[in-house]
Every structure is written in structure tokens, then in C-alpha cells.
Amino acid sequence: MPDLEVAFDAAGLVPCVMQDWRTGEVLTLAYMNAEALRKTQETGEIHFFSRSRNELWHKGATSGNVQKVKALRLDCDRDAVVALVEPAGPACHTGARTCFHNGELTPKAPYEVLPALQRTIAERAASRPDGSWTAKLLADPRLAGEKVEEEAEEVVRAVREESDERVANEAADVLYHLSVLLNTRGLTLADAEQILDERSR
Length: 201
Hints:
44% of the residues lie in helices and 18% in strands. The protein is of the alpha+beta class. Strands 2-1-6-5 form a four-stranded mixed beta sheet, covered by helices on one side. The two termini are 21 Å apart.
């Protein structure tokens, strides 16, 4: 990783917001000193400085839930860092996926919806509960593919003949069934998003 010219504060620290690389969800806020930043860049895994313990902290060293760094970004004043990571497990010491789980929004913010859906699909793939439509689709990729075709036709017809609300509903059905179909191949919508990014360069 390239060296970053960070403007540390008087205590030698800089705040670091850790975000999920694939979803953009905020996972935690912690602090880095120069050594933590250097270790992060050298190892490719997040290191923080614990203000309460006054020591360097390798995120996930004890739990195994390391956070592999995909990119580090600085704000315009160079006094705050965003770390985009691939989490190996929950980011919070409580076992929650994110430290920001108190006061969860209902409904979710728009960018949270598809990642939450894909986590639910992954859970169904692991547990295969009886009576679950998602589990049934996961067990039958051909059926899942047929549903994607059916729902795609319905959204096209809705655009041609129906209200905006119906278009949005049918589009939601496409996204759900496409997410399930992708899961049968070990893929997610983020894999398709990466291709779109590569095509736009």
C-alpha cells in the first residue's frame, strides 16, 4: 500500500472509520497512531491503537475476525482515515456485525437493504429451513433461473403498461430472485457491481 501523509492530532492519533468493502456499511470507528497505520499497511490487516489500554491492537487477533484492507482513504484535511475492508467475521466485540447496531433504523437505509438480503440468503443456504421459498430455490438452480426470467418479463411489462409502484415491486422481485440464483454459484450482486466498475474505467 502507498504511504499516506496523515495529519495526526496532538496525541499522535487519527480517527479511522472502517467500512465493509462490498457493501459500504460502517463497521466501527477507532483510532490509529503512526505504528498502527504502518502495521496496517505492512500486513494488509487492520491495526488500531487502543486509547483505553494504551497499546497497539490487531483487530481480530483474538477472535479470528480479522479485517483485510482493500483500500485506505484520507479526507481533504488528511486528518481522518477510511479503511475499506473485507471482514472475516463480526467487527464488534459483542459479536454483532457492526459496532453501530444500537438504534438500528427501521426501515433500513437504501444502501443497507441488498446486503441484508444477501446475508439472509446466505443464512438460508447454510440452514435450509423447511418451508422456506428461498431454501427451495437454492436447492433447485433451474427453478431459480426460471423465476429470474419470469420476473424480468414482468418488470418489462410493468414498465410498458403499469404504474411506477408496480414497476418498483417487479424490480424488487427480479433483484431477490437474481440474488438467490447468484448464490447458487457462490456469487453476490457485489461481483456483478465489480464488473460494472471495471467496464466504466
